[in-house]
Amino acid sequence: MNPFPPYSSVAESKLAGRYITNTHIEPFLSDYNHSIIGHSTSGLPIYRIRIGTGNTKVLMWSQMHGNESTTTKSLFDLLRFLNTNPDWLDNLQLSIIPILNPDGAKAYTRINANQVDLNRDAIDLSQIESRVLREEFDQFSPDFAFNLHDQRTIFGVNGKPATVSLLAPAFDFDRNYNPSRTLAAQLASTIFEGLQPLIRSQIGRFDDSFNPNCVGDAFQSAGVPTLLIEAGHYPDDYSREKTREYVFYAYILALEAIACSTFGNLSIYHSIPENQKIFFDFLLRDVSFIENGSQQRGDVGLQYQEVLQNDSIAFQAVFAAAGDLSHCHGHIEPNCEKLNTIDFKIEESAQNVLNTLIL
Ligand SMILES: [Zn+2]
């Protein structure tokens, strides 16, 4: 490939923004071989798309956490690409669940309608959405699995935002490597190397602590190479449209590697720097602030909360930390010279502070 397809010609551009629900994807389903493989806690359909006739089977699911929609948008970009570039589909058979947690997607929450985090339910399978995914895993019997998520803006790597993070989840507490985890890590190496020319130093490796209740860890334990892809922040891209493009390229790199059986080197995976929690959405450096009644001088970090309002996502800033934050970064670091003393007790003052700075 040369090296990537022209993105604008394949992007499903009508699917945009952070708020993506069943209602948003339903108009596109008729373009594909799709079916309903179950219903959510509150009765919404859980859709599955199948594409390809090859022997190597790949399972991909997104929005297990309802408010993590970037990888879903990229999946529809991928499907459009495959519809017009079907070469790999002689080798591959894809099963795609674009929104595993439609109730969470509708409410813009991580959890499902029973307030359960589906990524902590792999053993208990207490939730219907968890059982739908497990049944698809058991019946489809994939050779590779992709667990697709968004990560918060707090994550950085090399002092830059972690735009894409990768993880070959562990299958045991000692975090050993068996053949399936090794293959997943090699797949991550392929993606890491392929994305280097585009977002060098903005690709991180996620924490690999083993948790058997996490779905990726559970599928890895079942012997299926499983890769976690986390879509993260790209500068000035809170709608995550730029990140979505990079995730699409990550899919292309991974599927090309699987279709052609050419995988990266395990040592490259280990060289991927680990994610760090080092970012705030805004970092106000060296300002006066009142905390617990006493006036102090230091740095103040503000973080956006994402709030569903009128079928779109509003970003509302709140105070997140204060003190010596010299080791941290802000996606935006405004000039604070003329800022008055910040009082943490004043309700909604974080947004007022930002308004004062006239960003
Ligand atoms: Zn997630």
What does this structure look like?
- With 359 residues, the chain is of the alpha/beta class.
- The protein has 2 domains: 7-276, Aminopeptidase (3-Layer(aba) Sandwich); 278-357, no CATH class.
- It contains 10 helices and 16 strands.
- A hairpin with a 2-residue loop joins β12 and β13 (294-309).
- The mean pLDDT is 94.
- Zinc ion (ZN) is lined by residues 65, 68, 149.
Instruction: Specify the CATH class of the largest domain.
Output: Alpha Beta
Distance between the termini: 41 Å
Uncertain segments are none
Could you tell me the CATH topology label of the largest domain.
Aminopeptidase
Supply the number of structural domains: 2
Q: Characterize the overall form.
A: globular
The fraction of residues assigned to DSSP E strands is 25-35%
Main sheet strand line-up: 1-2-4-3-5-10-8-9
Find the structural class using helix and strand composition. Answer: alpha/beta
Write down how many β-strands occur, each being a DSSP E stretch of 2 or more residues. Answer: 16
What does the average pLDDT come to? 94
DSSP summary: helix tally: 10
SSE string, helix = H, strand = E?
HHEEEHEHHEEEEHEHEHHEEEEEEH
The CATH architecture name of the largest domain reads 3-Layer(aba) Sandwich
Describe the largest sheet: 8 strands, mixed
Ligand catalogue:
zinc ion
Helix percent reads 25-40%
CATH superfamily of the largest domain: Zn peptidases
Radius of gyration, in Å, reads 21 Å
